[in-house]
Design brief:
The chain has 715 residues and is α/β, with parallel strands linked by helices. It has 27 helices and 17 strands. Strands 6-5-17-16-15-14-13-7 form an eight-stranded parallel sheet, with helices on one face. It is globular and about 75 Å long. The N and C termini lie far apart (58 Å). The model is unreliable at 1-18 (pLDDT under 50).
């Protein structure tokens, strides 16, 4: 009888999910089975973007004018009423037996009608090997954070392959142009051709199917996907092959660049029309198309930018007369001359890194690319870039994000500010910063990070805790508060990940690291956070964050001990060097042991995802090679060493620490002890790791909290 009853209940739940009357109800079921029967949602027409949290027949009710806004309201309710925080490390919830009801209705509205998400680089540095299950989770995350303009570039390789074939290229020639799975971001940004490929027929079929599912879910939730449009990219041989006029041919860090088709060439409209036909066949028409001609390099010689902007816009409008061009504001681009060719209302500019170097025209801040006139008269968006290369590390600019956003609203450019964007190169890290920016648009009154953090911590860990509050206040005033004027690109990089030398500072060539906090402050914050373990160790978010914060503390200690190593070398005190280097290697081993306990911090998760995504068993090694290349040498020797791309996407992950980074430091320490200053071929060490096929595993038997407390106690 009990078994029969259970079967009936399961079938009824499955039927409910399948016939949910509103897409947010289905989202609720993915969060927690039965949640849509306990939390009511209602969509009502309104010209105002809003959500409202109230009670109806003893149940929480979230009302809004769109599915996305209702989902944002659901997230707000979960955070600030039952104190449940959904994040990348955990998108499932266990609802309490009694859901709290608001004493009175809470209504929040915004005039930020556009909320953009992602960066071309994110699709490679974080999303290259995602399957539908992972994508479904991310789209839910987007909805819960109010995103309504996600960049959706999956399957663009299919569009390009079909376009080139219609232009007379063979399958093999088209495949030589399209980049492999991990490198498609830079191919679509006109930086390279073919690297990491070729891809198989089955790959293209899988990509097309996945993109259709992605777009269906995004649109179901009321989002307007941003699709890659056409702005002139052609293969480098298009001048000879198609008889067209091109510019921009050249080399990017050792890679052959695609060419830029002159927009005045008669073939421009034909190629653009073919491209949009193929894009529409796969994805349907879009309201927004993303295009970034001349984004990072390329020759402007002989290019009339104003005419260029007008022609690109007209090609887009032929595909959809109601469409709008989305362009990244990064360094000098988009230039004023190009913007002058686009009618007002037909383009929106993403001020890509507003929290680092606001190019929108802030009169009080020095920026090498500041625009005195902003992006006038065009619409624009305040964006937070935050992460570069998917590097692992605590980092943020809390005061810049909060103060910068409210300042833009009050500025002379405020009337054309139409929303916000999350534009990181890598995700699944520092959730606090993404939570902060996504909430700004729903909070009309400016606040301080101190005002906000108590609510964040209470939501994330389920309860208020004095030790946690102490830790977060310390972190927020130090490592999470990089100031204006410091242009470093992302986190202060872990010394463990660097190629060893007597002058190690940063890991990647472009980081621009500059000290802005004291390492001991982070170690002290970790100690305070760890003090809450007896009370919070069963909370999943606490367990994740404890490992992450202790990881940062160990990295900070490693940098301090590295300084002792160099001091000993400089004074020729080899006994002191042996002692310091032994402690350094011990810290590196501890870091490996700590991070092995969590899948989010293990290279096993990255490699396994790549191998699982392989369209056929014989392609698994190719997929793994893509995964390993991206996070180490990036390219062949010339790109890695001469181009400086190596370690741009380094990861402080278990597996990489225990094998590659340990091998580097051991070789160098041994050489220093021998007094041997012969240059070490680190590329050869890196390449050997890339080509190795090792079965990495997450340590599921060792408790992450016990491990973190043990390691922290010995710092």
């Amino acid at each position: 009888m009990m078994k029969k009853l259970l079967t009936v209940l399961l079938l009824s739940t499955a039927t409910f999910v399948a016939t949910a009357s509103h897409p947010v109800e289905s989202l609720l079921e993915r969060i927690a089975q039965g949640a849509s029967q306990r939390i009511s949602v209602r969509e009502v027409p309104s010209d105002e973007d809003f959500f409202e949290i109230s009670a109806d027949n003893g149940r929480p009710l979230v009302t809004g004018n769109s599915a996305v806004n209702i989902a944002a309201g659901v997230n707000w309710y979960l955070k600030y009423y039952p104190h449940i925080h959904l994040a990348w490390n955990n998108m499932k919830a266990e609802l309490p037996e009694v859901l709290p009801l608001p004493a009175k209705a809470e209504r929040r509205s915004t005039d930020a009608s556009r909320r953009y998400y992602l960066n071309y680089c994110t699709h490679s540095y974080s999303m290259a090997f995602w399957d539908w299950e992972r994508w479904q989770q991310e789209i839910d995350w987007m909805a819960l954070h109010g995103i309504n303009m996600p960049l959706a570039m999956t399957g663009t390789d299919v569009v390009w392959r079909n376009t080139l074939k219609r232009l007379g290229y063979s399958d093999a020639e088209a495949d030589a142009f399209v980049a492999g799975p991990a490198f498609q971001a830079w191919w679509l940004m006109n930086n390279l051709e073919g690297w990491g490929g070729p891809n198989s027929e089955k790959w293209y079929a899988d990509r097309a199917d996945l993109q259709r599912r992605i777009l269906e879910r995004m649109r179901e939730l009321g989002m307007e996907p941003v699709l890659p449009g056409y702005s002139g990219m052609v293969p480098h041989d298009a001048d000879e092959r198609l008889g067209v006029k091109v510019s921009g041919k050249g080399i990017w860090n050792g890679f052959v660049r695609p060419a830029f088709l002159d927009t005045t060439d008669p073939m421009f409209d034909r190629i653009a029309d073919i491209y949009y036909q193929e894009l529409t066949a796969l994805c349907g028409p879009a309201k927004y198309y993303s295009m970034d001609p001349f984004h990072e390099g390329g020759s402007l010689e002989g290019v009339d930018l104003t005419e260029c902007g007008a022609i690109i816009t007209r090609a887009m409008k032929r595909a959809n007369p109601e469409s709008i061009w989305v362009i990244q504001g990064w360094n000098k681009n988009p230039r004023a001359e190009l913007l002058a060719g686009v009618p007002r209302g037909d383009i929106v500019v993403l001020d890509l890194a507003s929290e680092i170097k606001p190019n929108w025209g802030d009169p009080d801040l020095p920026s090498p690319y500041k625009r005195e006139g902003g992006y006038m008269p065009h619409d624009w968006m305040f964006c937070m870039l935050l992460n570069f290369g998917g590097n692992v590390g605590l980092h943020g600019r809390m005061d810049n994000v909060i103060g910068g956003y409210y300042k833009t609203r009050k500025s002379v450019f405020g009337p054309t500010l139409t929303g916000v964007g999350l534009t990181p190169e890598g995700i699944e890290n520092t959730p606090v910063m993404y939570e902060l920016l996504s909430e700004l648009i729903w909070r009309p009154e400016e606040f301080t990070k101190e005002d906000w953090l108590g609510g964040y911590a209470g939501a994330r860990y389920g309860v208020a805790d004095a030790d946690v509050d102490t830790a977060w206040c310390k972190l927020a005033s130090t490592i999470y508060n990089c100031p204006w004027g410091n242009l470093q690109q992302g986190t202060t990089e872990s010394v463990f990940c660097a190629r060893p030398s007597r002058e190690v500072w940063q890991v990647s060539s472009w980081s621009r690291m500059k000290p802005y906090y004291e390492p001991q402050d982070v170690i002290d914050a970790a100690q305070a956070f760890a003090a809450a373990a007896p009370r919070l160790r069963s909370n999943g978010n606490y367990r994740h964050d404890l490992v992450d914060i202790v990881r940062q503390a160990v990295a900070e200690k490693g940098r301090l001990v590295y300084g002792e190593m160099i001091k000993a070398l400089d004074s020729k005190d080899m006994a002191a060097f042996r002692s310091a280097s032994s402690r350094f290697m011990g810290l590196l081993t501890d870091q490996e042991r700590l991070l092995s306990t969590r899948p989010e911090f293990s290279v096993a998760t990255w490699i396994d995802a790549a191998r699982r995504l392989a369209p056929a068993p014989d392609e698994r090694d190719m997929m793994e090679r893509n995964a390993c290349l991206l996070i180490t040498t990036w390219g062949p020797r010339v790109a890695s060493e001469d181009g400086g791309l190596r370690d741009y996407a380094h990861r402080e992950w278990a597996g990489l620490l225990g094998d590659l980074y340990t091998a580097r430091w051991r070789v160098w320490i041994d050489a220093m002890q021998r007094g041997d200053d012969t240059p070490i071929d680190f590329y050869a060490i890196d390449e050997a790791w890339v080509n190795e096929r090792k079965d990495y595993k997450v340590d599921t038997k060792t408790d992450c909290v016990d491990t973190a407390l043990d390691i922290l106690g010995r710092l």
